[in-house]
């Protein structure tokens, strides 16, 4: 009986505890403005920061929608610029719900260490914020170019970033991932690019391509095609569409494949007293579309398509690595980090001069492709004569 009483008391205590718990940083919604996204720009002429906030407004629109508003201010430091916005707005900025931070090009070229330093010191910043670099003139341009005044750009960008696995032209980067890579030896950072697509009648904000960093500074970009092959190396690609051209009887056909799964292994090896990076990529595809009546389902034709696909992957990855080595000298692939982990004694010899050694690093790429499915069809379409 006493045991039952004790159990009942403990259960009641736990239930009451849940009812009485509260967050130490709890704030009334009406007392703060929730920062959904922020743009960080740098004024090269005045040497000051320009901060743009996209704030979630506690007021409700005419049709009951959530609304957003933009606020902007300048300051010699990030903290001062943010405080100037708070003074102007009359409410404190609340960061725990921030979706994205967009870095302007001038800011990225100036250096992002001040941003990292400030956000790491402030307990309100979440490490799972997504980071973007504006491919427009400024970060502010991304927030200004919207078709609907009630549209919350930050939320749309977060949704797009969450669909990275279906797109394959950029890599989602969290704040914690950026800071981790920036302080690792033999690893440089990349951040996805965001831009305003004005090709249609209305402007659409899109994410495509990658910004390449050296230390904390932007030094170049990769387009969406190059970004896809970066994802192969980074072992972070799946579900993407992959188009291969196949020539049959002097006619060229497009075959669309879907990446079912891909596994990349990076291994540093020593050859003739030199370090070589060996990249092995195993990829499984399915056929989703054939532009014509050619038969690539039969074993011989399928094997030919597999070899052709392997060659395409190998050539494009080699081209990408060569471009990054020659134009940017930035080890965004983490080859140096792989050497440090697998061959620490060798890294001690070459790590201190990695800026000189990386551009001359030999890289071998081996692609292994297997086409396992052809969706619901086992034969090509044939039109009756």
From TrEMBL:
<dbReference type="GO" id="GO:0016020">
    <property type="term" value="C:membrane"/>
</dbReference>
<protein>
    <submittedName>
        <fullName>Ger(X)C family spore germination protein</fullName>
    </submittedName>
</protein>
<keyword id="KW-0309">Germination</keyword>
<keyword id="KW-0472">Membrane</keyword>
<dbReference type="InterPro" id="IPR038501">
    <property type="entry name" value="Spore_GerAC_C_sf"/>
</dbReference>
<dbReference type="InterPro" id="IPR046953">
    <property type="entry name" value="Spore_GerAC-like_C"/>
</dbReference>
<feature type="domain" description="Spore germination protein N-terminal">
    <location>
        <begin position="26"/>
        <end position="194"/>
    </location>
</feature>
<keyword id="KW-0449">Lipoprotein</keyword>
<comment type="similarity">
    <text>Belongs to the GerABKC lipoprotein family.</text>
</comment>
<feature type="domain" description="Spore germination GerAC-like C-terminal">
    <location>
        <begin position="208"/>
        <end position="374"/>
    </location>
</feature>
<dbReference type="Pfam" id="PF05504">
    <property type="entry name" value="Spore_GerAC"/>
</dbReference>
<keyword id="KW-0732">Signal</keyword>
<dbReference type="Pfam" id="PF25198">
    <property type="entry name" value="Spore_GerAC_N"/>
</dbReference>
<dbReference type="GO" id="GO:0009847">
    <property type="term" value="P:spore germination"/>
</dbReference>
<dbReference type="InterPro" id="IPR008844">
    <property type="entry name" value="Spore_GerAC-like"/>
</dbReference>
<keyword id="KW-0564">Palmitate</keyword>
<dbReference type="InterPro" id="IPR057336">
    <property type="entry name" value="GerAC_N"/>
</dbReference>
